[in-house]
Design brief:
The complex is a heterodimer of chains A (about 325) and B (about 475). By secondary structure, chain A is mostly helical. Chain A has helices spanning about 5-35, 40-50, 55-65, 70-75, 85-100, 105-120, 125-130, 130-150, 155-185, 195-210, 215-220, 225-235, 245-255, 265-275, 280-285, 290-310. Chain B has 15 helices and 23 strands. Chain B has helices spanning about 20-25, 30-50, 80-105, 110, 120, 175-185, 190-195, 205-215, 235-245, 285, 300-305, 320-325, 330-340, 355-365, 390-400; strands spanning about 50-55, 65-70, 70-80, 145-155, 160-165, 225, 250, 255-260, 260-265, 270-275, 275-280, 310-315, 345, 350, 370-375, 380-385, 405-410, 415-420, 425-435, 435-440, 445, 450-455, 470-475. In chain B, strands 3-23-22-19-18 form a five-stranded mixed β-sheet. Chain B has a five-stranded mixed β-sheet with strand order 13-5-4-20-21. The chains are: A mainly alpha (about 325), B alpha+beta (about 475).
Chain lengths: ~325, ~475
């Protein structure tokens, strides 16, 4: 297929996934903020959210002080914020429109409809009145977009590049979420040992944001502990949003588009997947979770750049 | 002025024969149900994204510059015997135009015979000297022609068809023709049981077949692509639509490159050879190394590959010399010159303002005439005398006096009307018709075309950029 076409479908999926993850994080932060807690703790949560996407300076430049209402506006409606939900969904739809002939009618119409509905919803006060419902809507549209893709697209390169975009972005987003949430708890990540309740809400919020709360219970049948949360979201191959699970998909889809599986993208991805597959959470914690995640993000970034160079924007 | 309505006999409520079944059906439809259908059509067109971009326009609703072309529910119906005549006339006309193009870029016999003045061709900006002596497959220059046809009453009030324009460069609108039909079949399936409407959905197949048949003879399984200026072009929907319907790649200039006179596209598996380019990019922008150097829409080296016969470009480069408004008046003579036949379709009488006596007549009758720029398109830069204000007329008088060669003038035709949904209910609105004619070893077309309708009361300008809408066009089978 045309490299430019592959580039568009790849980014269409990345932006759709990013919008979903932004909605997930905002939703969890919003739910958490409804719990009784000090203003300082609450602000920490919202700040962390901006830090995840490296947006704190941009936010402060535009909005100044960190308040829940303003962060919501910034992360949902602000067109100057390239990671806001409106920016992501616009970019997803623009990319889809550029290659609408490559997509099935259902895939294109889903993207287009999402964009039209978003504009209709944002013209109302739904976000202010009931943020949870709005975030549900964003997640739902992302589920729909993924479902219609898998359910209607021919299994060929276009689909592989879409899936690549989805999982590369998801791996990146999960890693960022983990990094910020574990760092939000200063000192070490066993949290404020004195404050059991805060702990529970903090860790369960992370799980909820990746739809992992019920999974945690099923897998561990035990109280929520940070090291297990980390293990679940980094190393479990059977959790759809874990780093290993994302890397498995990245490797599979890269193998499908690369004729010889010997390209640099394949090798980098294969190596990163092997690292995740054959390590333990104890080893990671010894190295330091933050250091591990920073390294992971660098690698995934490099894989993205290499995919671009080898397939999407060849010189 | 006499009027001609497609549905009703002159000045009466009596339905014309070919509208009887439809008219009877329409009279039984409930007003609110029809309104609901119109809303449904709009919702679907929006969701499907059947939109066009308006240059220099910006919306606040997030839809960017994308607009819907209004779709009218009442079809324009043409009886079989009329279509047969039209079809014969179109084949004849397009054949002659292709013969003319071949002649102009080879022997120029028509110039030597003094039928078309040489300076009209050789000094015309649409004449491409680069094409002199270049042989194109099957001698077809205009593979896809969008001929604009209007109907107006003659002295007795009978409707006569006239060709208004021959669009031989990159005529658009065929996607609306196809989508309008799809919409009608979705909204009113029962109507298609009631009337035997000739199908048109095989157009993309016919187009693909023509494109493949025009490939350089060196290849037996040619790769066809559609070349678009990109998603911000006003006709982008159509480019994407046609590429998808034909199952070929939609490429932009930057996806292509030329190596040793061979055109390639950049794919995820390396370069792939391209044999036929259905381009929706104007000549000027095709190849920055030959035409406009500032063009980012084309591909450097394309012309060289084309002239070497390694790739075919459809329509051919240089077709603009045959659909230029200053050449239009000569088309009936071309038909006689090349085919030895009498023209089947009428031209609209045209005053060429570069001729002193025509200019004199035009200036004296500005308030009755339509004045058009020779190189204008899209309904811009024209004067419709009977509708114009005094200052507008005076403005054109000055323009004409300063540059008479840039204008032609025609009597204001009373374009036929067709009942159309408007704010106040159903009212007559002026329409035209653009059939799409495909030329290869033979000339063929699907039965029908795009009917455009001027939605403003009394307006004669049907262009979508000027508030025009579209209708489904039915050719009734006997």
């Amino acid at each position: 297929m045309l490299s430019r076409t592959a580039d568009h479908v790849f980014w269409m999926s990345r932006y759709t996934e990013r919008a979903e993850n932004t909605a997930r994080m905002l939703d969890v932060n919003y739910q958490t903020s409804l719990l009784p807690q000090s203003t300082a703790v609450a602000e920490l949560g919202w700040q962390g959210l901006l830090k995840i996407s490296e947006l704190l300076p941009a936010y402060q430049g535009l909005y100044g002080e960190v308040t829940p209402q303003r962060v919501l506006q910034f992360m949902v409606r602000e067109e100057q914020n390239p990671s806001s939900i409106i920016s992501c969904l616009r970019a997803a739809r623009e990319n889809a429109r550029a290659v609408r002939g490559t997509l099935t009618t259902e895939v294109w119409e889903t993207q287009n409809q999402t964009w039209l509905e978003l504009n209709r919803l944002l013209a109302t006060d739904m976000l202010e009145r009931d943020p949870g419902q709005f975030f549900e809507w964003v997640k739902f549209r992302s589920h729909l977009s993924r479902g219609v893709t898998v359910g209607t697209m021919l299994v060929d390169e276009a689909l592989y590049f879409m899936r690549l975009g989805t999982f590369l972005e998801r791996g990146d987003n999960t890693a960022r979420l983990l990094d910020v949430k574990f760092n939000a708890v200063d000192s070490d990540f066993y949290g404020l040992a004195s404050d059991q309740e805060y702990d529970f809400y903090h860790w369960s919020a992370i799980l909820r944001s990746v739809s992992g709360f019920e999974i945690y219970r099923r897998v561990y049948r035990n109280v929520i502990q940070p090291d297990r949360v980390a293990e679940l979201l980094v190393l479990r191959p059977d959790i759809p949003r874990s780093l290993l699970s994302c890397m498995n998909e990245v490797v599979n889809n890269l193998d499908a588009v690369c004729e010889s599986s010997s390209c640099l993208s394949c090798r980098l991805a294969g190596k990163l997947r092997a690292d995740l597959k054959f390590t333990t959470i104890d080893e990671i914690l010894k190295q330091g979770l933050h250091a591990f995640l920073v390294q992971f993000l660098e690698q995934i970034n490099q894989i993205g750049a290499e995919i671009s160079r080898e397939f999407l924007v060849p010189a | 002025m006499l009027k001609y309505d497609e549905m009703y006999e002159r000045g009466t409520e009596a339905l014309r024969t070919h509208y009887r079944d439809y008219g009877a059906w329409l009279s039984q439809q409930d007003e609110t149900a029809m309104r609901a259908r119109r809303d449904e059509a709009e919702v679907i067109f929006r969701r499907v994204g059947i939109t066009f971009a308006v240059y220099g326009d910006k919306d606040e609703d997030g839809a960017g510059t994308e607009r819907l072309i209004p779709f009218d529910l009442i079809p324009r119906i043409i009886p079989a015997h009329e279509w047969r005549e039209l079809q014969k006339g179109l084949v004849q006309r397009v054949n002659a135009l292709n013969r003319f193009l071949h002649d102009i870029y080879h022997e120029q016999a028509i110039l030597k015979a003094g039928i078309v003045p040489s300076e009209q061709i050789l000094q015309n900006s649409q004449f491409r000297p680069e094409m002199m002596g270049v042989d194109v497959p099957n001698q077809v220059y205009s593979m896809i022609s969008g001929v604009d046809i209007v109907r107006a009453p003659d002295g007795q009030g009978n409707g006569q068809y006239y060709v208004l324009e021959d669009n031989l460069r990159v005529p658009s609108g065929v996607s609306y023709m196809l989508e309008d039909r799809k919409m009608m079949m979705r909204l009113f399936p029962d109507l298609f049981r009631l009337n035997r409407v000739a199908p048109i959905a095989h157009y993309p197949d016919m187009l693909l077949e023509s494109l493949r048949a025009s490939a350089p003879s060196t290849t037996d399984n040619p790769t066809v692509v559609v070349l678009t200026p990109g998603m911000y072009n006003s006709a982008y929907f159509e480019h994407a639509f046609l590429a998808q319907q034909m199952g070929v790649e939609l490429v932009e200039g930057k996806d292509l490159f030329v190596d040793q006179d061979q055109v390639f596209m950049r794919t995820t598996r390396g370069p792939r050879k391209v044999d036929v380019i259905y381009r929706r990019v104007d000549d000027d922008f095709l190849d920055p190394s030959t035409f406009r150097a500032d063009s980012t829409l084309g591909c450097a080296g394309l012309m060289k590959a084309y002239k070497a016969g390694r790739v075919n470009i459809c329509n051919a480069v240089g077709t603009g010399i045959a659909d230029d408004k200053s050449i239009y008046p000569y088309v009936p003579k071309m038909i006689e010159f090349y085919l030895g036949e009498k023209p089947i379709l009428n031209n609209v009488p045209t005053f060429m303002c570069r001729v002193a006596e025509d200019l004199q007549y035009t200036l004296a009758h500005l308030s009755e005439l339509v004045v058009k720029e020779v190189h204008g398109a899209g309904g811009y830069g024209m004067l419709v005398g009977p509708m114009a204000s005094q200052p507008e007329i005076e403005n054109f008088r000055q323009l004409l006096t300063a540059h008479p060669e840039r204008y032609i003038a025609q009597p204001t035709l009373s374009l036929s009307t067709c009942p159309t949904y408007v704010e106040s209910g159903i009212a007559p609105r002026h329409i035209d018709l653009r059939p799409f004619v495909l030329s290869g070893k033979t000339v063929q077309m699907v039965p029908g075309g795009l009917t455009r309708v001027a939605l403003k009361e009394g307006s004669l300008v049907v262009n979508s950029s000027q508030g025009g809408g579209t209708k489904d066009t039915w050719i009734l089978e006997n």
